[in-house]
Automatic annotation (TrEMBL):
<feature type="transmembrane region" description="Helical">
    <location>
        <begin position="211"/>
        <end position="230"/>
    </location>
</feature>
<keyword id="KW-1133">Transmembrane helix</keyword>
<feature type="transmembrane region" description="Helical">
    <location>
        <begin position="98"/>
        <end position="118"/>
    </location>
</feature>
<feature type="transmembrane region" description="Helical">
    <location>
        <begin position="30"/>
        <end position="53"/>
    </location>
</feature>
<keyword id="KW-1003">Cell membrane</keyword>
<keyword id="KW-0812">Transmembrane</keyword>
<feature type="transmembrane region" description="Helical">
    <location>
        <begin position="304"/>
        <end position="326"/>
    </location>
</feature>
<dbReference type="InterPro" id="IPR050367">
    <property type="entry name" value="APC_superfamily"/>
</dbReference>
<protein>
    <submittedName>
        <fullName>APC family permease</fullName>
    </submittedName>
</protein>
<feature type="transmembrane region" description="Helical">
    <location>
        <begin position="347"/>
        <end position="368"/>
    </location>
</feature>
<feature type="transmembrane region" description="Helical">
    <location>
        <begin position="374"/>
        <end position="400"/>
    </location>
</feature>
<dbReference type="Pfam" id="PF13520">
    <property type="entry name" value="AA_permease_2"/>
</dbReference>
<feature type="transmembrane region" description="Helical">
    <location>
        <begin position="412"/>
        <end position="429"/>
    </location>
</feature>
<dbReference type="InterPro" id="IPR002293">
    <property type="entry name" value="AA/rel_permease1"/>
</dbReference>
<feature type="transmembrane region" description="Helical">
    <location>
        <begin position="138"/>
        <end position="159"/>
    </location>
</feature>
<feature type="transmembrane region" description="Helical">
    <location>
        <begin position="441"/>
        <end position="460"/>
    </location>
</feature>
<feature type="transmembrane region" description="Helical">
    <location>
        <begin position="59"/>
        <end position="78"/>
    </location>
</feature>
Length: 481
């Protein structure tokens, strides 16, 4: 892709790092595995059945469309991360573009909320897969309690300060990937043996009198949850070797690999299992393996592989959410008690408790008032929040286009960011996305909590003579302005 001005010596080009900079230890292979591992997980393991419930056998199509939307947005992220190879991700780019602290706060808080809803989705999927793994029929209340217990376990690990290194992520990625490869191989074995109906993969079946376009939009809104995660890699920019050069090919390769895996998994799922059995199924891939190879010993492992995958997603997302909340508190845009750090473990215990509490409330609310499939509601809310952020990121690319830097960087062009804005908004707005009203209710409630906390902090700081958060610019976001 085209670049701007001639390269100049810079930290990311390999020059000796200044004291206090993060170590650039991540090369192309580790970055690729990080991106694949971050994308793979709860979405495809838990939501394939819900996607099929919306469009029937053509469940592969929403995953393919979701990949297209993610790919267009990835181009915008690539321009920004190669232009500004720093941590802070979307918050950094939004602050550079608009310089309005409250807008930056909203974007950061939305990203934090997406981590909470994603972890809640993973917790529910973990409980459902545990029930499948031990082959015990559990009621909704029991599944809810297991999910809550799992979140408390994640909180305990988070509190002790156990963080995932990139090399540990390699192991987790390989385990997650093994489960999906198992589904694909067993699925194609069943298809080759005549034990599947491959003709189902081109049959559209929409629920009730729902229009085809709206059903595809609804299914894509769900499937998009399976494609998120690539944007987290931009936070590794300061620890990546020569990010302006390797990020484009690595991110696009990672997205391409996961898209192929998702399409193959969805093809196998609808060919092997009738749509009626996939719909409203919280462990769809377990059902696929059990149907394709009944009694096959390796099939009993898949629920536990699924548990491992979603547990990793939950831990990473809760760590991210608690650290973002801690950072906002430390910068004075949220109440100060949220920045309290445990004396011995050096972990943000107050933020960990707060984010865990929100996750427990979410699990309880959607479990006790299940108007729609629970995992679909939580996963859909996650994609709703992130698609809103992605629309802003695509806009930011255009706004920052006149800004010049002294090194070569990726360019997304003029058309793709506009396509990204339109596509993301299409999947966000209620009349085009087909989302259930409960997703907007959950997202709105979470944002209302954030705005109230921000307003309280604003009033307290003004009354104490410390100024408002809007008058302060975090140093890490203001760098290079």
């Amino acid at each position: 892709m085209a670049s701007t001005t001639a390269p100049a010596p810079s930290p990311e080009s390999g020059a000796p790092a200044e004291q206090g900079e993060l170590k650039r230890a991540i090369g192309p292979k580790l970055l690729l595995l990080f991106i694949i591992g971050d994308i793979l997980g709860t979405g495809v393991y838990a939501l394939t059945g819900q996607v099929a419930a919306e469009v029937g056998g053509a469940a592969w199509l929403p995953f393919l469309i979701a990949f297209g939307v993610a790919l267009v947005t990835a181009f915008s992220y690539l321009e920004l991360v190669t232009k500004y190879p720093q941590t802070a991700g979307a918050a950094l780019y939004v602050h550079k573009a608009f310089g309005i602290h409250f807008v930056t706060f909203l974007v950061t808080f939305i990203v934090m909320c997406s981590g909470i809803t994603s972890a809640s989705t993973a917790a529910r999927a973990f409980a459902a897969n545990l029930a499948a793994g031990i082959d015990v029929e559990l009621g909704n209340a029991t599944i809810m309690l297991i999910a809550m217990g799992f979140l408390l376990l994640v909180m305990a690990v988070n509190f002790r300060g156990v963080s995932e290194s990139v090399k540990a992520n390699v192991v987790l990625t390989l385990v997650e990937l093994s489960g999906l490869v198992m589904v694909i191989l067993i699925g194609f074995w069943a298809i080759a043996g005549g034990n599947a109906d491959f003709s189902r993969v081109v049959v559209f079946e929409t629920p009730g009198d729902k229009a085809l376009l709206l059903s595809i939009s609804t299914a894509t809104s769900l499937a998009f949850f399976a494609m998120v995660g690539f944007e987290d890699s931009v936070n590794m920019a300061e620890e990546t070797k020569d990010p302006s050069r390797i990020f484009p090919r690595v991110m696009l390769t990672g997205l391409g690999i996961t898209a192929v895996i998702y399409v193959l998994v969805s093809l196998c799922a609808v060919a092997v299992v009738p749509i009626g059995r996939l719909a409203d199924n919280e462990t769809p891939l377990v059902t696929v393996v059990e149907t394709a190879a009944p009694g096959f010993p390796i099939g009993s492992l898949l629920p536990f592989i699924s548990m491992f995958a979603v547990a990793n997603s939950a831990l990473i997302n809760m760590m991210m959410a608690s650290r973002l909340l801690y950072g906002m508190s430390k910068q004075g845009v949220l109440p100060g008690f949220l920045s309290k750090v445990h004396a011995r473990n050096r972990t943000p215990w107050a933020s960990i408790l707060f984010t865990t509490g929100l996750s427990l409330l979410l699990i309880g609310y959607v479990s006790l008032s299940p108007e729609s499939p629970i995992v679909a509601v939580l996963g859909g809310t996650t994609s709703l929040l992130l698609l809103a952020v992605f629309a802003v990121v695509n806009l930011v690319v255009l706004r920052l286009r006149p800004d010049r830097v002294e090194h070569r960087h990726f360019r997304a062009g003029r058309v793709l960011p506009v396509v990204g804005i339109v596509a993301c908004l299409w999947l966000v707005l209620p009349w085009s996305s087909g989302r259930g009203i409960e997703q907007y209710g959950i997202a709105g409630a979470l944002l209302a909590i954030g705005v109230v906390l921000w307003a309280v902090t604003f009033v307290v700081r003004r009354s104490s003579g410390h100024g408002s958060p809007a008058e302060e610019v975090p140093a890490e976001l203001d760098h290079g302005r």
